[in-house]
Amino acid sequence: MSGDNRDVRSEAGSTETSEPATLSPDGAARRQFLVDAGALATGIAASKSLHAAQPQPNVALPVAAPPATSHVRLIVNGHTNELDLDPRVTLLDALRERLGLTGTKKGCDRGQCGACTVLVNGRRVNSCLTLALSHEGDEVLTIEGLASPGALHPMQAAFVSRDGYQCGYCTPGQICSAVALLDEARAGTASAVTRDVRKLGRASLSDEEIRERMSGNICRCGAYVNIVSAIRDVAGSG
Ligand code: FES
Ligand code: FES
Predict the structure, then answer these.
(1) Ligand 1 atom with minimal separation from the 111 CA
(2) Neighbours of 53 (CB within 10 A)
(3) 123-126 and 79-85 as β-strands: parallel, antiparallel, unpaired?
(4) What does the H/E/C string look like for 172-219?
(5) How many angstroms separate the alpha carbon of residue 222 from the centre of ligand 2?
(6) Which of 14, 69, 98, 217 pairs with 104 at a CA distance of 20 to 30 A?
(7) pTM of the model
(8) Is residue 221 within 6 Å of ligand 2 at its C-beta?
């Protein structure tokens, strides 16, 4: 390019081509705009850093009050426990964290796996889905309370003899659920696969019935075949 066509952008480090050195009125206005915008941005940054350097007033942050607790009397495995609990504590967490009964397992903590199954007044319950405070005076039975001193519960013994587990994580919930299942069948409670729901009296427990009635208890190891065998053994003997 000729000397007259000096590349003005090259002054600013740009590699683009090329405007005449003698700026048109539009070019001059744009250049002035860029200069002004740069000055404004620099001013804002300086003002922010000055502001940050100012000492801040000593403002006391609000401190969250500890949650109020409520008293509950939980009867677990025949023992009465007087507890002061945050009302949001689930029965599962009260058993595990406050009473040290860690046989009851936490799998999903949202009612999907059955690992936390315990018996409350003889009925099976997902203990992760119910608040401890709602069980004032209830009789809670966990896996630790099923066996008699020196003897396994028949359902525990059947799980052992049928090898109804692998890792064992789901097993306490499976066994509690299976114990309640037998009581439900004795009481004639129908399931989703019961052929004749008008039939009164004890429900017969086919493998299909056992599988359906145990469908809320998931076993990630897939020990289902042996679990059904164990339950069938005990159902057939009682
Ligand atoms: S932990 Fe309660 S259902 Fe999974
Ligand atoms: S034995 Fe492992 S999850 Fe059931």
Answers:
(1) 3
(2) 7
(3) unpaired
(4) HHHHHHHHHHHHHHHCCCCCCCCCCCCCCCCCCCCHHHHHHHCCCCCC
(5) 7
(6) 69
(7) 0.73
(8) yes
Q: Which ligand has an atom closest to residue 219 CA?
A: 2
The closest ligand to the CA of 166 turns out to be 2
Q: Token pair of 54, please?
A: 């100012």
Residue 218 in contact with ligand 1 by CB distance below 6 A:
no
pLDDT in tens, the chain (238 residues): 444 444 444 444 444 444 444 556 666 667 677 667 666 666 565 555 555 566 667 788 888 877 799 999 999 999 999 999 999 999 999 999 999 999 999 999 999 999 999 999 999 999 999 999 999 999 999 999 999 989 999 999 999 999 999 999 999 999 999 999 999 999 999 999 998 888 778 888 999 999 999 999 999 999 999 999 999 999 987 6
CA of 232 to the centre of ligand 1 (A): 24
**Ligand 2 in reach of 224 Cβ (< 6 A):** no
Question: Which DSSP string do the residues of the chain spell out, in sequence order?
Answer: --GGG--GGGGGT-------SS--HHHHHHHHHHHHHHHHHHHHHHHHHHHHHSPPP-PPPPPPPPPP-EEEEEEETTEEEEEEE-TT-BHHHIIIIIS--TTS--SSSSSSS-TTEEEETTEEEEGGGSBGGGGTT-EEE-GGGTSBTTB--HHHHHHHHTT--SS-SSHHHHHHHHHHHHHHHHTT---TT-S-TT--SPPP--HHHHHHHTTTS--TT--HHHHHHHHHHHHHH-
